[in-house]
Structures are given as structure tokens and as C-alpha cells.
Amino acid sequence: MLRCHIIALVLFSFALQLPASPVFFSKHCTECHDADTTKADLNLESLNTDFSQPATVDSWQKVLEQLDTRQMPPRKKPRPDPSAQEKLTTWIRSEFAKRNITPIIDHKRRHPDFGNRLEHEALFDGSHAGPASSPPRLWRRSPHIYDEFVKNLGGLRHAATIHQPFAMDESKGIIADYSTQHLADSATLQLLMMNCQSIAAYQTTGILKREWDERMQLHRQDEEVFRDIIDSETAPTIVQLTAAITHEYQLFIGRSPTGPELENTLKLAKKAIESAGKARGLQTALVSVMLKPEVIYRLEIGFGKPDEHGRRRLSPHELAFALAYALTDKPPDQVTVGSESLLFLAHNGKLDSPENIRRAVRHILDANNMSVADYRMFSEDHKVRNTRTLRFFRDFFGYHHAPRVFKDEKRISIDSGFDTKRIVTDADQFVMHIFDRDRDVLRQLLTSNDYFVTYLGSDEHFQHDLNYIRENVNDSGYKTNIAYINRIEAAGKTPIPLEGSSSRTYIGFYNLDHKTWDYPRKQPFPLPKSQRAGILTHPAWLIAWSGNFDNDPIRRGKWIREHLLADQVPEIPITVNAVISEERDHTLRQRLEPTRAKECWGCHRKMNPLGLPFENFDDFGRFRTTEMLDDILTIFPDRHRDVRSVPVETSGEIVDSGDAGIDGPVADAFQLVAKLAGSTRVRQSFVRHNFRYWLGRNETFADSSTLIAADKAYTNNGGSMKALIASLLSSDSFLYRK
Amino acid sequence: MISQRRHLLKGLTAGAISPLLTPFLHNLRASDNGVLPKRFLFVVKSSGLTPAELVPSDLVPSMVKPGERESWPAELVPTKALLDIPLKDHQLPESLKPLAGFADQLTILQGLSGKMCRGGHSAWYGALGCYYTGNEGNPGRAASATVDGSLAAALPSIFPHVGLTLGGKVLTGVKDSVVYPGISALAADRPLPYQASPAMAYKSLFGIAAAGKGAAAENRLQSMLLDHMAGDIKRVQRHIGNADHDKLDHYLSAFDSLRDRRRKLKGLEAEIRAAAPIVTDKFTSEVETDRIEAHFDIAAAALISGISNVVNVRADTLEVTYRGLGISKHVHGLGHSESVNGMTPVEARRRIRTFHLEQIARVAAKLKAVPEGDGTMLDNTLIIYLSDAAEKHHGSGIEWPFVLIGGLAPGGGNRYLQYPAYQQPGHHTIANLYNTFMHLAGHPTDHFGRLDNQLPATLQKGPLSQLLS
């Protein structure tokens, strides 16, 4: 009898060890992953549970990743029973946990470039009901928030060097500000401490600095609470120190210290003053406030009450900060909704419901419209309205990388400087104008030919700058400028309000002639529909996604595949030495022909046919109908007068997009972007990327309802991105922590 | 330098020595006992280190074959047996000529493999850690310590690991802050930071000793502050529970390490000041070559002053354009065999490599100028030049060349060593080399990172005997 029990127990334990995986595998996996086929080098028939073997762990890691992302079984095969699948993944995780093995998938899913790994259809088909939440988290403040804070300290920047302690990945086309990606360690701390010392000195004793004219000047913030202590003959009182510490808490954290916090900081202040005198002692106490984890990290723990799902809502204080830093770089006491600050609203129960939050978000976005657009806002970015939205567009499209793509001096002339920075401003205005109008935003972004070129924001600014050029007799190009203005005006046209002919030449990017162009004082203005349609035909985007000497159809196609089709392209195999031939007697399309080889085309078919339609443009973003051969292109037409050229070939194709309605050939870039603009898949991909940006993490299947709601908010409001953002920022994914 | 240290030690009574200072002092004492400090300088370039370019010029006809296609780099002829050639009998290859003065301590190491790593543009942490991680755009997870991290732990110093770089990840541009290039880790999930700005690197390494008058009072204040902060962070930790605990752990340990560092630096100001580099315009220059030069100045000073025993210079990233060398195309483009300014890509890459080796030669010369024990500091140093992309722009790891300079490895110097090719008897991997480094550091390991499953485990075990004797 006992023996029977033992045998039963052994069998039971074995069954527990392998919860139905043989059945699961034979049903869904071994058709491709058995001993005969071993697709992707994975043989699940021989997979055992000896987790002491690295190779076994590797295989289980693969299985877990494929199941968790629903990449396997492939889309066309029958879906596994969800409970069987969950049972298997739970078992793998528990076995890993027993042996202290970290599931690699958990690490990978924290990275921005993992976002598209989740099966797209499953996110939007309503099969996942949530409940949604984010993990409790500490989110390191962004470099922009830090900059904004330092700017608010007034003259400090003139007196001391303030270092940026919070670096961020600036890779092209990446939404980088994820809470999982950044932390503060000893290297960051060292920079922070240098800054904090400067700030504390500036706030209290001031910083003495020799000015350009050799004069010594004291830079001091001169706050009363500190002055009272520093300038007094006597030792500081507890009341004075309490006021100083409380002031610093409010300034850096937006709240007063708790009892124990005040007590501890007072203790430090007293000890430090005894040891090193009033000034240094006080400064040390102030630095201690500046270094608090709350100053470095945004705390989003969820201090609210738990709900029936075990989720905790963000407390009013947390919510105020989360919203303020989602929409701006300022703390919530400086972000207003009407006459009240976000912080006030939160603490007074006025952000309790999603409706109220949506209203507040809409209000903030509307109040920061660029209706009085001024290009100078972009060069002094603290003045840019809806800065965070602008940064989304930059991260998403990557067009602001244009100036970083090096173009040889011989191609662009040394003197002209070939101002690629200004086209970034033009593109900024283009996207923000569409955002402000808030109708059919994605379609407009992808198809509008209403462009901005050197727009100064208003007629007043135009007059001001033109007058400045007219009166600036000290400028070395004064005579040339005046001659230019007179000539254009004599022809009944409006001159470009830019000083210096070399600055004006940049409009050649748009196929405009700076010598004859009639500058439109009201912008945006339409460029020929046959030449421009949306941001992907904007010179800023085209240059950003070009090479040093040529277009880059592969990366352009990859961008579309990943950003607009929510798809992924496998990495280049390590055995491949990918080289584009330098045989310039062939067109670029011809030079890319080797990628049609069988072993390459599986991936390149996902990229090249999406990128090649942009052969409508050269690598300076200029529209063209012919491609020059034999020579490297420059911006000087004279140099290429006798060069051989052939008509450009712009055909392409959308394949396997996930939206059968748009799959098929396209004649050129214009057809391509028109198709993309009308696709549900593209819209949903846009929603997914928005989710990542505004939530600071990748979406999961539990966020499915949040994504669906955001998509609906967008479509039900006539393509309103503001409604989309408001929906995301009032979603359970944003508000709850678990 | 040594006598200064002895002087310092004499001045310290036993009671004055803090327990945290012990490892460092142990180091100094050891040097008095005849065991000299050991130093490692890693120089990690991007885009591959071409094996054929490291073959002595006069041996090229027999040891090198043309590349697969016309403008592609030539290739090393694989061997079945170990080649061990004295360098002095041959002509150094073009780009290694800056090292001519150090031939006695120069080793060219070829034929090792690193197939346990990811190939492509970068093996990321794998290059120095021997494991597969990351993808094209991302370093992925630091699965365990890299060899520079292990050496940093094995050879304690005030700054256990100094990382200097031109930019962040392998595919991003220049930044002026602390970045994580994803090639060095102290342990699993503990990536090591790099300073992207020479000016900031200077401040953080050498600025701390420049306190001058009132230094004692400042130190007291700093200690109070750091103690207070440690307490404050622990209170926050209790308050927020388990959420993102590793972030607060990191922050807390940052205060601990700063506190530790301050204690160790006490009294060493003069020594550090003497070795600190002279700050020039190069420290803030926008030109890549200037910044690289400044970083090498810092690297040399960090080693000579004794504030660090392990330095890693990330010499460039794929997006760097060497305008200072007259090359107007970025390293990525050159790697894809694009010609530039009348140069073939091979010539342009050679020019870049020569520049790197000139910098290494400058550091070697500085180390050689400082007496230590019966020789010089260079005798107790190993400079390791490699690429995180192994042998070519899209490395495969099937061969992974190294250039070693310095006298730390007794078997090194005046040697061209080419190990039998992949899967041939007698073949070895980069893990064997990293075991060798650990042996040299006095912390021998027999295994490093993960095994290459296509090779017998036995040959991946232990150090490279040729370098140890």
C-alpha cells in the first residue's frame, strides 16, 4: 500500500514538473521544432528539464519568450488554449525562480526596441480585458526637466557651470525616456554633487565671478529665508533653519518636509554649522535636500487605496507630478489649468475621475498651442509650447537628426554652412501646426503639403527682422543684403527675412530658388503636391535618414516597417558583410540589387520596397526626376552640367503589412504615404508608439484596453491626437500601480 | 612616485588607518614588499580590428590572402599549428609602427575566437565578458562581469574602473555626460559608466584632490552629508517597499562608494596633483581626435597617479567621423567599404588605427618614464587593444585579434602569436586570454563567461600558457 503511494507520488511529482508541455509542444510546436526540422536550431522533442545545463536553460528561455510575446505559434497556425499556455509559462517561470535564473524576456521587454515584439492583432482584438496598470516605479527625471529646473534658478547659469547629470540615449527613431532605462549611480551622483554645491552657494552666499570686462561680480539668488541667516551676526535660530529647509523642500520636491525629515535635516544643519560655520553648514543642509531620491526620481509607487484587483491608484500628489511631467518639463505647481495649478487641482479632489483628468489634459494642451508660433521658440526650447509633444514627434520620426548626418564639405561648400538646423525648425513647425489643428493628425503628418520655410511666426516678427537687416550697416554682407531686398521688392515680391545670402540658400532643399523666391508672409503655404506630401518627404526627415553620400532606402524602409507597421526586421546575420557597391555608373536601386539574393531578400523585401519610392528625392531632400550617375552629387548644379543621368525609378511595394487593404505595389513615395495614411494598422502603430512615449514603457497585453480606448478616442474625435493623449493619461495603465 | 608612497605610509600610524583604506594600503605595502602594482588599460575600438593588418609587412605575402571582393580587407591565412614569431626579426605592419619603440613589450595575438558572443556591429558586454547579449541597437543585459570589471574588483583602487568614451552606445554620437556604452560590467546587471567628456572626466578624477585650504573641514562636511543621505535613502526604501528597489540600491551604493573614495583620497592630494594631466583646449574640443587625445592623457594620469589600476578607453563609436584625420565619412561608412577623400576604406581605417596606436604609444612612453621597482611602470602594465566587433565591421568572432603592450605578461613581448584556427587542435578563445589576465592580476580563473558549444570545453579552460612564461 505504501509502495503504491510512493509510486503515485513520484508520478504526480513528474507530472507537476512538466505540466502538459509534451502535449502542448506536440500540438503546437514540434511540427517545426522536432529532431528532423529543428527550425531556428530548436528541437523541443529532446528538451529536458535539467536546468543545470546552460543549453537547456537557453532553450526554455526561447520557449518562454515566444509564448509570452505570442510570436509562436505563427500567426497562420491555430492559437493555443490560453489557459494551457499560461500554465506552461507559469511553470517555466517558477522553475527559473527556483534556480535563480532571470527570464531574459523580462529584461528584453524593458527596452524600447522590444516594443513591436508583441503580436499586434492580439493587442487590438479585444481578447485581453486587463485590468491594466503599470508597475510601481521610480522614473529618473529627464535631462529636460533638469534643464528647466536650472533655468528657473535665474542667474545661476551665468555664475557657475552646471553639468547635465542625466544623459539619455539619443539614437535616431527611438523613444528613449523609459523608466526602466535610466538610473543614478556614483558617476551621476558625482556630477549632481558638483551642481548642488554651486546651487547652494548661489542661493546663500552667492558666487563671485570675474566678468568679461574683468569686473568681479557677485551672483546671488538673494532669497530672504537664506539672507536672514547668512547676513545675521548671530547664530541661526531653529525657526530660521526650519524656514530655510522648508523653502528648499518646496522648491525641489514641491512639498513640505515631514516631521522626521525636518528633524533630521535640522540635526545635520546644526552639526554642519558647528563644524564649518554658518554658510557652509547651511549649504550642506540644503544640498542634502537637493540629493533626496525624490529629486532624482519621480516616485510613482501608487500610494492610493488598493482596488479589488490589488492595484493602487497614484496618490493626488503622485498624479499631479505624473501629469505635469508627462505634458511639460515643469513641476505641477507651475502647470496651470485655468487659474489653478495641477498640484492644487490634485490635492482638492479635482483630478479624481478620468473625465476630470482628460479635461485638464486637453486644457493644458490647448493652452500651449503654437497659435503665435515664433521660430525663435525652437532655438530657445524653454519657450516652445507643448514641448513634450514636439519631443514625441522628434523621437518618433527622428527628423531632428538631420544636422548630425555628415555631408562632405566639398558637396555643400565650406562657407554656406548649409543650414540643416533650420530645416529642423521648419519641420518642428510643420508637425506642431498639425498638432494644434488637431484634425486627422496622422493623415496630415503623412500627407500634408502645407509647409513652413523660414517662418518667423507673425508679420510683426517678419517686419522686425527685415528692418534689422536693412539697418544693420555693420554686417559685412550689408550691401549684398540690401541689393537682394531691393531687387526682390522691385520685382513685386517679398524678400526672405534672413541675413546673408548663404543662409538663404538653404531653401534649395525645398526646390525653391533663393534668388527669386517670393517669401510667403503667411505660413504654412502649399508646396507643389507633386513634390511634397507629409513629413516623410520633408528634407529634414529625408536627410536624417540618408547616408553621407547617398539616400538610405534600407533604413527608410526599416523605419516605416517598425514605426508605421508595428513590425520588426530581424537583425542582419553576423555572417553578412553588408556593403553597398560604389559602382556609381549604376543607380542606387541597381546597386542594391545584391539584396535580392535569396538569403537576403526574406528581410530586405520588408524594407527596400518601402524605402525605394523615396528615390523621388536626392540625399539633400530635394525633389528630383533624374538620378545622376558616375559622380558624387553636390549642391552646385554647375558642377554636374555634363554628368550622365537617368530618370528616377520610384516604384515600390507594401508587403505583409498586416493590413491587406494597403498591400500591393506603389508607383512612388506619394502613393506610398497616401496608402499608409489611410491604414488602420498604421494608425494603431501610431497609438502604440504614443503609448510608449506617454507611459514611458512598452505596452503589454494587459494594456490592450488602454490601447483600444486611445485608438477610439483618436478616431471618434476626428483624428484628434490631443484626445489620444488625454485618453492615455487618464487610463488605468497610467493611473494604477501593481 | 614609490618613494612618495613610502613617505606617506611612514606618516600613517596604525591607528589612523581606516578599515576602508586597507585594500589600497595593502597595495602600497605590497609594492614595498617587492610585489608591484598591476595595471590594465583596455582600448576598445569599434568596427573590427582587421587581422591581416596586424601581420608583419614582410610576412604578408605568405600569411595574408586578398579579400573576398576588391575593396574588401585582405584576410589572414588560417593556420593549423601555433605560429610563434619573434617580432624583432620582421618589419612591423604599417599601423603598428608607432609602437616600434616598444617592440620588446609588444605582442600581436591572432587566431583566438569568440563565437560565444554576438557578432555584428558589436558584441557589447560579450566582447569583454564572453557571452551572447544585445542586438544591433542595444547592449542587452550584462549577464555577468566583463574582464575589465573583474580586474577592477581584483585590483582595488580609489577609482576601481575608469571608463572614457567619445559617445554612448556603439551607434550614437558624442555626448557630454556620463554614458553607458554597454561594453563593461562589474557584475550581472551592473553596467559600468563611462565619461564622455574629457573635461568632466578630469574633474571627477583629479578635481577631488584639489580642495586646497580648508580641505579637512570640507571632508568633515562631506562625511556628514554622505552619512545623512545614506540614512535618508534607507528611510525612503522602507517607505516605498520593494518597488524598483535596485534603483535605490544603486543610489545608496553611490553614496557609499563616494564616502569610501573620500576616505581613501585623504592625504593623497599631492600625489594626484603631480600626475594630473594639463588641461588644454582638447578637453573641451568638438573635434573627435582632440577628445580622444585628451582621454588618453587622462588614462595615463589615472594609472600613474595610482588612483586606478583599470582603465578602459572606448576609442570611438561607429558614428564618429575622424575629421581631424581628414576623413569625412563616419566609421560606419568606412566599415561598409565606402571610399573617402581619395582613400580606399582600408587606407582610411589604417589611418584611424595608426592614430589609436600613436595614442597608446604616448601612454606607454609616459608609463615607461616612471621608475617602479627595478624597472618602470610599463613593466607592470598591460595595454590591450581590441575591437568589440572582433575581426571586422560585422564581426563573426571566428577570429579575434589583440595587440598587447607592456611587461605584465612574462611570456609577452617581441612576439607574434597566431593560434591554430577555429576548431583546429590547439585553438583557444578569448576566454583563455581573459583567464590569463586574471592570472596576471593574481586572481586566477579557469573559466570566463560562457562556453562556445562548438568547441571542446577543455581547450576553453585556463590561461594561455604562452603568455605566462
From the structure above, extract its key features.
heterodimer; A: mainly alpha; two-stranded antiparallel sheet; 35 helices; 14 strands; 5% strand; globular; B: 469 residues; two-stranded antiparallel ribbon; disordered N terminus
Topology (elements, then pairings):
The complex is a heterodimer of chains A (about 750) and B (about 475).
Chain A: H1 2-17, H2 21-28, H3 54-68, H4 82-98, H5 104-108, H6 120-124, E1 137-140, H7 143-152, H8 156-159, H9 186-203, E2 207-210, E3 216-219, H10 224-230, H11 238-253, H12 259-276, H13 278-290, H14 293-296, E4 297-300, E5 312-313, H15 316-327, E6 336-337, E7 340-341, H16 342-347, H17 354-367, H18 376-379, H19 387-397, H20 409-412, H21 420-437, H22 441-447, E8 450-451, H23 459-471, H24 478-490, H25 501-504, E9 525-526, H26 539-544, H27 553-564, H28 588-591, H29 598-604, H30 608-611, E10 626-628, E11 645-647, E12 652-654, E13 664-666, H31 669-677, H32 680-695, H33 704-716, H34 721-729, H35 732-735, E14 736-737
Antiparallel strand pairs in A: 1-4, 2-3, 5-14, 6-7, 8-9, 10-11, 12-13
Helix pairs in contact in A: 3-4, 9-13, 10-11, 11-12, 11-13, 12-13, 17-34, 22-31, 32-34, 33-34
Chain B: H1 2-11, H2 22-32, E1 39-45, H3 60-63, E2 64-65, E3 75-76, E4 83-86, E5 106-110, H4 125-129, H5 147-154, E6 162-165, E7 178-179, E8 185-187, E9 190-191, E10 194-195, H6 198-206, H7 215-240, H8 245-265, H9 269-275, H10 288-305, E11 310-314, H11 331-335, H12 345-368, E12 371-372, E13 375-376, E14 381-387, E15 402-405, E16 415-418, H13 430-440, H14 465-468
Parallel strand pairs in B: 1-11, 1-14, 5-16, 6-11
Antiparallel strand pairs in B: 2-3, 4-16, 5-15, 7-10, 8-9, 12-13, 14-15
Helix pairs in contact in B: 1-2, 6-10, 7-8, 9-10, 10-12
Written overview of the protein:
- The complex is a heterodimer of chains A (738) and B (469).
- Chain A has 738 residues and is mostly helical.
- Chain A is built from 35 helices and 14 strands.
- In chain A, strands 1-4 form a two-stranded antiparallel ribbon. In chain A, strands 2-3 form a two-stranded antiparallel sheet. Chain A has a two-stranded antiparallel sheet with strand order 5-14.
- Chain B is globular.
- In chain B, the strands form 5 sheets. Chain B has an 8-stranded mixed beta sheet with strand order 4-16-5-15-14-1-11-6, with helices on both faces.
- Chain B is α/β, with parallel strands linked by helices and 469 residues long.
- In chain B, helix 9 runs antiparallel to helix 10.
- The chains are: A mainly alpha (738), B alpha/beta (469).
- At the A-B interface, helix 5, strand 1, helix 9, helix 12 and helix 13 of A face strand 7, helix 6, helix 7 and helix 8 of B.
